[in-house]
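Much of what follows relies on a compact textual record of a protein's fold. With that in mind, consider the following protein and its fold in token form.
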Amino acid sequence: MESPPVLGRMVVSPTSFATVCAAMPDPRRAARVVYPLPAILALLNRIVNCQQRLTRLERACRGAAARLMEVELRARLAELRRELEVGEHRLSRWS
């Protein structure tokens, strides 16, 4: 019994993708309407890829902003604790 094929990431170059799109039949050609279907499909592919990259960048930026805020909040919290200790020390001198 053969093992099932392992599915991995397939890399397709822009030129080969455009070639595959050019080989696809365009049903509008039967109606004598000709559009550059390969170019439209290649453009849509680039748009989807760019959108995915932007989504990843947005997530990375949000994560970096959250980490930065956490660091800044920890520093501010430590500063407030020191001020509180100084204030308590001053109050204890008057008691």
